[in-house]
Amino acid sequence: MRLARHLLALSLFAALPALANDATGLDAGDLAVAAGLRDQAMQGSEAWDIVESLTTEVGPRMAGTPADAAAVQWAKAKFESLGFDRVWLEPVTFPVWLRGHERAEVVAPYPQPLVITALGGSVGTDGRLEAEVVEFADLAALQAAPAGSLEGKIAFISNRMVRFKDGRGYGPAVGARSRGAVEAAKKGAVAVVIRSISTNSDRFAHTGTMRYDEGVPRIPAAAMSNPDADLLVNMIRRGKPVTLGLDIAAEHPGEYTSHNVIGEIRGRDLPGEVVTIGGHLDSWDLGTGAIDDGAGVAITMAAGAAIGRLERAPRRTVRVIAYANEEQGLYGGKVYAENRATAGEIAAHQLSAESDFGAGRVYALRAGVDPAAWPVIEKIGEVLAPLGVVTEREGGSPGPDVGPIVARGATWAQLAQDGTDYFDYHHTANDTLDKIDPKALDQQVAAYATLAWLAAETDVDFGTLPPRQP
Amino acid sequence: MRLARHLLALSLFAALPALANDATGLDAGDLAVAAGLRDQAMQGSEAWDIVESLTTEVGPRMAGTPADAAAVQWAKAKFESLGFDRVWLEPVTFPVWLRGHERAEVVAPYPQPLVITALGGSVGTDGRLEAEVVEFADLAALQAAPAGSLEGKIAFISNRMVRFKDGRGYGPAVGARSRGAVEAAKKGAVAVVIRSISTNSDRFAHTGTMRYDEGVPRIPAAAMSNPDADLLVNMIRRGKPVTLGLDIAAEHPGEYTSHNVIGEIRGRDLPGEVVTIGGHLDSWDLGTGAIDDGAGVAITMAAGAAIGRLERAPRRTVRVIAYANEEQGLYGGKVYAENRATAGEIAAHQLSAESDFGAGRVYALRAGVDPAAWPVIEKIGEVLAPLGVVTEREGGSPGPDVGPIVARGATWAQLAQDGTDYFDYHHTANDTLDKIDPKALDQQVAAYATLAWLAAETDVDFGTLPPRQP
Predict the structure, then answer these.
(1) Helix, strand, or coil here: A323?
(2) Residue A291 and residue A351 in one domain
(3) pLDDT in tens, B101-139
(4) pLDDT tens per residue, range B340-378
(5) pLDDT tens digits for B188-211?
(6) Is residue A464 one of the residues assigned to a domain?
């Protein structure tokens, strides 16, 4: 197979341009346009200015807040000023969660303040709560605790996330955040505190969603910074009971309707066939949402705009989507997928990709497409190679907001980014513009523009995938 | 001169041990003991456990707070458990400043919260204050503003501290913090906000002292994090008026008496002659004071304790001083100097050193001594050389708490530390235990034990210096 592809590749560049078109739907001119898009982005893209504008003029834009509405207006205006052919808003409705004050301290035996933040969706403490803390090495240890053993206590899950380039330390660690409250409440706990799902040692607490289960008491849930978790561990190992005070306010004021903001470059031949790229427009409230996910919005807006400025539009439509409320439940991605399914447009979605892993450089191209379309992916990979991007046939996954449409059968591509430092800043007050390297941003624009343009220019069908549980 | 010293050094190691004693007061046995102290510390010292204990069991210990009293009791007990011959408290009285709440946000044209902290000594805003902000590139630019030109405005000083190994970026930058309120008030400003005196880009505001002048209105003063200052600069350059909201509470509840905590190893021959090492026991309230200056206290306590465990005490007394309230005006160092002057003990202070520049490795030995005693410093430097420490005849300065006794004529030594990252953490919530490298701490214990032991073992008089303005 490898040899066969190799021979095919040789033939493409040598004597058989017609065959090239058969396998990839792309000719030398198309590849030259892609290389031009790529190289121009590397010379300097608009992405930095876009993310600077978003973080400066809107800043934190948590779903359901006034800043969410400001972000939607910002995105609409930005798409228009960037010259997209069509810009529209797609309503997305969800329940709102609002953070109030949050304070924590060690009451005894060594009184001192702690840096914490409520997890997204948590209830408040309904006044100040004071209780002894019981440490668990991880979620499994908490699950193994005897029923009722935490009556009146605060559960503390102290496991530490491990750093990897691809962020694979997140999965094993994040259960403490998403499931901690339910598991602690089952044992009788009055609250749960976790070590932040984080890879660094700065004193920022990392927020993120948690959930409650029907029939299990809803207890407050908060994360503390890594240094605070270290401190608590060091206190606990001295052997005296450690009492914490927690005072957390939070509100669930009802539903809100925000919007996916969509800009498209209309395809010249096959406008009904759509390649989508995008990021999510909402952020958590603590930082300015620069790397999560102002960067993704900026990269894909800039990539789309670069395609829009070409002399000739690609065959298919390129759609850039700034998704609503990813952080609190992928609401924008789900609504986008539902609406496309209702309209019978899943198969028309030729390839979907999302940038939502910070602002580090792209190092791999992966995809989930019909095997017959793989030569197109390989060809895109060849154009991406000078950016330091390798094409990987195995593994990968669509971005979070692309997940719902992929679950309905749509195909996807992933431009995997170096996320080595992503979980240093993710979901903290420290997610700010200065964490972005403008040159890395340009590299990503180059990668997204190349991917989107070639996927939209080819007429090879990327097929569909077997629908699955989202 | 260099050649002469070189020949002398050769002679010391070769044929003339009697001459060695004449020039340095140290023989081969003394140097062997020093090397043993040094090498044992490098194998692992007690400093980590000491600073872990202080930061865990006491934590933040701002002067005049209940944690200040807890720190004094902690230090006394720690000196005693480390086997110091004599441990005592020296009262130090000072005015107290207490931080209350502090909130800031951009009100218009781009509403979003800002991370700020009140500067030490600042008055509060007396409710919420809202005013337009005017940017100045540095303190000099503010000073050059026309009288009355800031009537009803908030002055913003945006200069950025530069990173150097020896921290020399601090001096040019810190005037904005110490003098900003006075200069802004002279022009009519209602408050001053500054870019934190900081070398990194994490979203921590750095506190630190500021002062008021008689006859100039006392206006609130706060620092914002570097990312927040960037944000404000980016907003201002868009050209629309930028309005800030500030709500800062602070109290000046009166005087408090804390204590210098002193432990000493009594000299075997010359107990009235004293070599002092130390750090300051107080910290700011935001972090746990690990690098500023738990490290200094721990390093010098561990060094003193190592000397105390030797079979034979040095000729002179070694005194380890945990100074009170360095942060808000060098109160502990001033009282220590005054009391020694009153007792006629300045000349008996043979050499004084302080560790108060974080937890980075020592790279240079410098001193201010009678030129006749310089061969002793050179000899100490030879024992320190394997630690990567060079001896520098020029430059250097005593630590902040040593300054007052040096101003009265006492001699000093400096073990200059690598402070490359010191101003990343200094005076922030992020000054926590995890920022300390235990191996670097051991190296510093090795250096301080070597210095203190050799300075206390020699009978060469370090002399006195011309008294000067403190």
Answers:
(1) strand
(2) yes
(3) 999 999 999 999 999 999 999 999 999 999 999 999 999
(4) 999 999 999 999 999 999 999 999 999 999 999 999 999
(5) 999 999 999 999 999 999 999 999
(6) no
What is residue B161's DSSP assignment?
Answer: P
Beta carbons of B432 and A112 less than 8 Å apart:
no
CB within 8 Å: B202 and A430: yes
CATH code of the domain covering residue B397 = 3.40.630.10
Size of the A and B interface in Cβ pairs below 8 Å: 92
Chain B residues inside the 8 Å CB shell of A240: none
- Is A432's CB within 8 Å of B112's CB? no
Contact B316, B271 (CB under 8 A): yes
Judge if A196 and A276 occupy the same domain. no
> Hunting for tokens 């781009």 — which residue is that?
B110
Contact check, Cβ <8 Å, A56/B111 = no
Closest CA–CA distance from residue A13 to any residue of chain B (Å)? 48
| Same domain membership, residue A112 and residue A74 | no
Range of the domain at B169: 97-252
Tell me which residue has tokens 């876009």. Answer: A50
- Which residue of B203, B231, B435 is in closest CB contact with A56? B231
* Number of domains forming the structure of chain B: 2
Q: How confident is the model at residue B12 (pLDDT cuts 50, 70, 90)?
A: very low
- For position B7, what pLDDT does the model report? 39
- Cα A185 from Cα A190, distance rounded (Å): 7
Percent of chain A with pLDDT over 70: 95
Q: Is A278 within a domain?
A: yes
A430 and A291 part of one domain = yes
Contact B425, B363 (CB under 8 A): no
Residue B92 lies in a domain: no
Q: Residue A390's closest CA among A359, A419, A423, A367? A: A367
Task: Using CA coordinates, name the residue in chain A closest to B108.
Answer: A57
For every residue of A263-285, DSSP letters joined together read EEE--SSEEEEEEEEEEE----S
Residues 6 or more apart whose CB falls under 8 angstroms from that of B124 comprise B100, B118, B220, B248, B249, B250, B251
**Exposed e or buried b per residue across B201-236, where buried means at least 16 C-beta atoms within 10 angstroms of its C-beta:** bbbbbbbbbbbbeeeeeebbbbbbbbbbbbbbbbbb
Angstrom distance (rounded) from CA A172 to CA B301: 42
Residue B228: which CATH number?
3.50.30.30
CB pair distance less than 8 Å for A112 and B231: no
Residue of A nearest to B435 (CA): A201
Tens digit of each residue's pLDDT (9 = 90 or more) over B321-342: 999 999 999 999 999 999 999 9
Could you tell me the two tokens for B34?
């020093």
Residue A144 falls inside a structural domain: yes
CA of A115: which chain B residue's CA is closest? B429
Summarize pLDDT for A342-368 with one digit per residue, the tens: 999 999 999 999 999 999 999 999 999
pLDDT tens, position by position, A371-389? 999 999 999 999 999 999 9
ipTM greater than cut 0.90: yes
B394's tokens: 């020029």
Residues B244 and B281 in one domain: no
DSSP-derived letter for residue B138 is S
Contact A59 B429 (CB under 8 A): no
